[in-house]
């Protein structure tokens, strides 16, 4: 079955490790045989791998785009996915196990797809933590009971 991709103007795509960019017009590309394909908007930049889920996502992405490194990456990917499963728990465990299964059969694109909801969940957790940290930092620290109230505050 052929894969039909509609590329937006200037959209980036990687096919079997070869990075390509569409022209300034919309095009339809039909891939008729098996190929490792990832669109630019699904790619993580190496600067953005600062969280545990992003690190695993980046390793899987590297396995997808660099066939020469796959054998060396499978074990580290599986180990990091196992750690994620113990840390996240809940609804994310199923998606993490699904990603691990896809990695074990060499379907790295589906592994990335399975991990995307976990990536969004991690982003939500980080945003809530950032919000809590900002709120906590902005709140005045309580004055110890032993410390006298400043004169200006007394009425």
Overall SS class = alpha+beta
Strands of the largest sheet, in order across it?
3-2-5
Structural domains: how many: 2
Largest sheet: 3 strands, antiparallel
Task: Describe the fold and architecture.
The chain is of the alpha+beta class and 155 residues long. The chain has 2 domains: 1-43, no CATH class; 44-134. It is built from 4 helices and 5 strands. It has helices at residues 52-65, 70-88, 92-104, 108-138, and strands at residues 3-7, 12-15, 18-21, 27-31, 37-39. Mean pLDDT is 86; it is low at 137-155.
Summarize the structure.
The protein has 155 residues and is of the alpha+beta class. The chain contains four helices and five strands, in the order βββββαααα.
Question: What's the topology here?
Answer:
Blueprint: E1 3-7, E2 12-15, E3 18-21, E4 27-31, E5 37-39, H1 52-65, H2 70-88, H3 92-104, H4 108-138
Antiparallel strand pairs: 1-4, 2-3, 2-5
Which tags fit this structure?
single chain, alpha+beta, 2 domains, two-stranded antiparallel ribbon, 50% helix, 14% strand
